[in-house]
Amino acid sequence: MDTITPVDTATAPMSGKDRYRAGTMEYKKMGYWVPDYVPSDTDIIALFRVTPQDGVDPVEASAAVAGESSTATWTVVWTDRLTACDKYRAKCYRVDPVPNAPGQYFAYIAYDLDLFEPGSIANLTASIIGNVFGFKPLKALRLEDMRLPVAYVKTFKGPPTGIVVERERLDKFGRPLLGATVKPKLGLSGRNYGRVVYEALKGGLDFTKDDENINSQPFMHWRDRFLYCMEAVNRAQAYSGEVKGTYLNVTAGTMEDMYERAEFAKELGSTIIMIDLVIGYTAIQSMSNWARKNDMILHLHRAGHSTYTRQKSHGVSFRVIAKWMRLAGVDHIHAGTVVGKLEGDPATTKGYYDICREEFNPTQLENGVFFDQHWASLNKMMPVASGGIHAGQMHQLLHLLGEDVVLQFGGGTIGHPGGIAAGATANRVALEAMVLARNEGRDYVNEGPEILDAAARHCQPLRQALDTWKDVTFNYASTDTPDFVPTATAAE
Amino acid sequence: MRVTQGTFSYLPELTDDQIRAQVQYCIDKGYAVNLEFTDDPHPRNTYWEMWGLPMFDTRDAAAVMTELAECRRTYGDRYIRISAFDSTHGWESLRLSFIVNRPADEPGLKLVRQETGGRNIRYTTVPYATEKPEGQRYGVV
């Protein structure tokens, strides 16, 4: 891979009187392009995909991104000279052409730790994605990845529960958890809604889930939903002897309303509550604090993310959102299914899952992970796979997504011909049969269909599920794919 | 009624060969395998009685199977589970847990509802078996 080499003395930063003469100046001359800069261990590093307007020099465009996301404005200001401005200027130190994407460049930009308030995603994002995405000299801009130094990570509390403690509380180990989103997502009364929850949990699921837009509408007031759902959860617990849960969505118009709903969920004995990404970063951090204080698992539905994560040219990659959410502190996060109905290239999705679940993420360009990332023992997030998956894919799901994941079969439970409980049982039997086979050392990925057939011999609902959905696949090209093939290595 | 705690409770009872394979999987992963038993199947009864300590230095599932046979001889009327502990930093908890023995008859759990303020209900789950003293709950095999 080519690196644009910086032996252009004409772009060297200027200093003194020349630098601060009133008027405009190229960003790269103002000190936002420092090709020999070596990022320190405490710097935050952002990797942007920059698409300059035609005729705009990529280095100047990248320096402008550094400038506009840190100290610069469109003209020189003398008040810079009252500050330690060399420290506060973000420094673009590397610009690489994107492989196989003419006109696009990867710009590496380092930010001093002092630019950011400790423990505030709102502050971080106000800088990094605050202004710069509308900057006219750029056609498009995408934040691809960030390196968050341990010094910064340690200013956050992270997920309130984490994968390990969630499993301990639920007393469920060694297999993916199973869930389902109640459908139809709009229109059920509280009483009817609770019926779906009861049947699904009784049939063998661990969790049911409110959908992102179930809050408090004319057809179902939130208190009604909570009361009927907890009747269902407790009935299913007594029926099975297992801990069960339902993600009660506390998303509301104000923080006061959200706190009220969360308190009611706690009063009713729920193990878990849920919020939507659209409530905003500060609200998420507040609900995380609340969850930590009240022994509650916090589920995040990434509602709205595809508006800015999906297109490769512009926006913010979901891997960055996942990193911010691990800092902000949620326990569950939807991270893709690969095989289901929603966007998700396998390699890119692997990158997201690693960010959720690992203590250390090594650079893996083939998965879209551009930096080594240490998580400093911050709790792990449980990824949630939801959207168009069914029991017949169990071998693929276990192989691609691993053991620490919630597999959510909404339609794949509720749409079962034998009813909701039968659908749940089919999923649970398929899952346990697959884990058993994997642990026995079988080639479960290739023998998956036979393993499921064998399990279906003692489970009629699984037989029906396999017959109903046997041909359902969602094979479409992904829009968000890695730029590097597995054999590529980073050029230095 | 069937208590479905633990991985594999939705499958037909595992044979000893199947149990051995799972135990060997755990041992090969570096987990310490332990046997625990109880006659209180409440979903939040975390601390089942330990049958000795986790077998930290056992490399062969056969040793665990010998202990299981021994445990079944004494407590065959109760629930017995196999638990595998992973001491790796960042986990330091169970990696697998599954029931390998259960009472001949499982009467299930009772749900008690106490009506409180508004429409709120306070729920209590009570295993029918625990209405008798420990050790007398499922009869003797």
From TrEMBL, chain B:
Gene Ontology molecular functions: ribulose-bisphosphate carboxylase activity
Entry keywords, A to Z: Calvin cycle, Carbon dioxide fixation
Additional observations: The basic functional RuBisCO is composed of a large chain homodimer in a 'head-to-tail' conformation. In form I RuBisCO this homodimer is arranged in a barrel-like tetramer with the small subunits forming a tetrameric 'cap' on each end of the 'barrel'.
Function summary: RuBisCO catalyzes two reactions: the carboxylation of D-ribulose 1,5-bisphosphate, the primary event in carbon dioxide fixation, as well as the oxidative fragmentation of the pentose substrate. Both reactions occur simultaneously and in competition at the same active site. Although the small subunit is not catalytic it is essential for maximal activity.
Superkingdom field: Bacteria
Listed GO biological process terms: reductive pentose-phosphate cycle
Family: Belongs to the RuBisCO small chain family.
The protein's assembly and partners: Heterohexadecamer of 8 large and 8 small subunits.
Alphabetized InterPro entries for the sequence: RuBisCO_ssu, RuBisCO_ssu_dom, RuBisCO_ssu_sf
Residues in Ribulose bisphosphate carboxylase small subunit domain copies: 4-103
Source organism (scientific name): Aerophototrophica crusticola
Pfam families registered for this protein in UniProt: RuBisCO_small
Record-linked CDD domains: RuBisCO_small
Gene3D superfamilies according to UniProt: Ribulose bisphosphate carboxylase, small subunit
Protein name: Ribulose bisphosphate carboxylase small subunit
